[in-house]
Amino acid sequence: MADLKRSEIRAIENAMAFPRGFGYVLDFSDRTFGEYFQDEFGVEIYTEQFSTCGTSKRNRLLSYLQQADNSSVLRVLRSLWELREGLLSEHEGLLGSQDAAKNSESFRKVIDRLQSEPDSVSTDGIQTFAPDRTLEELVANIERLLAANKPEVAIDHLHTYCMKRFAHLLKVRGVDFGEDEPLHSKFGKYRKQLVLERPLHEFTDRALKSFISLLESLNDIRNNHSLAHDNKILETFEARFIFSSISAMLVMIRTLEAGRYES
Q1: Closest Cα to residue 46, out of 64, 72, 19?
Q2: 83 with 52: CB under 8 angstroms?
Q3: Taking Cα atoms as reference points, which of 187, 184, 180 lies closest to residue 166?
Q4: pTM of this prediction?
């Protein structure tokens, strides 16, 4: 969900008070406000879900903004910005130009700040695949850290997850491996078995081969750039890129497996 500061919520409220006053949302009636959310965003705003802050239009808007994800909040705020600017042009003089400009600037800053926030990293490739309490806790910790936008803190967890994932895939195939065998070696054995089991397009096989070297690099990152040891950790943007890349591979592996080898 979008993490709006209290000052940003006040900025939104002040901007939405034009032209009918504080507590309203622009010039919407109850009916047109509901139609606007349904037609523009496919959201039924008059439901219990969006009454957590109260049942007025203003409070329903705040309830939605506090529950929706970053991209959905941006869509709504951009749309409201355009409607507000149109109303300001139509009703010039209803508010002092200084107040209108100040509220517009504050509202625009909220949109700009949200636009600069990176999207959270997908956890689609991270899943429990066997009845294992350690695995469940590992997955839960990864999800919590990614939700908090801290992929750099979760890098060592990602490495551990991959070690467990490919060890599992080798075990269900009866392929021998050493407990201390590095991640890229386990993945290489898995890829070799996979191409024996089913035909793969040349592109897919090349992608799998490329991940052998990427996972070898992940070994180094885990040992020298994560909280597994007393290291200087990665910048957030780099960790996000690494997580997204590895997660894409894990999603592909999950699709290739299609549940055939899972416990």
Answers
A1: 64
A2: no
A3: 187
A4: 0.59
